[in-house]
Design brief:
The N and C termini lie far apart (about 45 Å). The chain is of the alpha/beta class. The protein has helices at about 5-15, 20, 30-35, 40, 60-70, 80-95, 95-100, 135-150, 165-170, 175-190; strands at about 50-55, 75-80, 105-110, 120-125, 150-160, 195-200, 205-210. The protein has one domain (about 30-210): Rossmann fold (3-Layer(aba) Sandwich), CATH 3.40.50.150. Strands 3-2-1-4-5-7-6 form a 7-stranded mixed beta sheet. Bound molecules: S-adenosylmethionine.
Length: about 220
Amino acid sequence: MPPRVAAHRVFLQEFFRTFHTTGAVLPSSRFLGAALARFVRERDADRPLRILEVGPGTGAVTQQIVKSMKSGDALDLAEINPTFVQVLQRRFASEPEFQAIAGQTRVFCGPVEDLESGEPYDVLISGLPLNNFSVDEVERILETFRRLARPGGTLSFFEYIAVRAAKSVISPRRSERERLKGVGRTLDEFLAGAERQAVWRNIPPAWVHHVRLGDIIAKPQA
Ligand SMILES: C[S@@+](CC[C@H](N)C(=O)[O-])C[C@H]1O[C@@H](n2cnc3c(N)ncnc32)[C@H](O)[C@@H]1O
């Protein structure tokens, strides 16, 4: 079975088995991956980057990150699901693009909240399905991102366009509608003034949010 098909199969299986943490039926498209990897490509300085990808799943976004890595960069991956960790380890052992930077990469199997603060990260990229989590979980995760980033470091993450807004109106359970509205308020506060990029070539289409932690990336003037 071609590796891409095998990865899709594992993803779908984990969607049914661990819906709360997986939160998507399909891995991200290469267009969404490229948008999320923007700050690995567009560097502020020539110095090596410390990159953290949170929730890499089967490596769809990781693949776009590794294409833009340079020698001296370091990539850490934090993935809660051991089945996805096995897929990632196979990719780093067997696929040339992944093999090329395997020596610069570490994979942590566990929740990102448990990652210890070491040397701070310049670039954080998250695939976490925040809209599946409670308000408390979302707040804890956003706090974790702040703790792990260097001042002025970037965070890029995505959410599917219109899904939260639609579900917070049509969901049959009131508690679910309230949860989603609470997550929306927490994210709106966190993202006030941040840059938002639409990626239509993904199923479903997604917003990518780019935030400079401790600061906001201003939208270019039209
Ligand atoms: C929507 S999937 C995204 C997968 C991949 N980045 C992509 O875009 O195709 C969410 C991923 O986050 C992982 N995850 C969920 N909660 C996590 C946590 N607290 N810490 C680390 N990984 C987590 C899931 O296991 C899953 O791999």
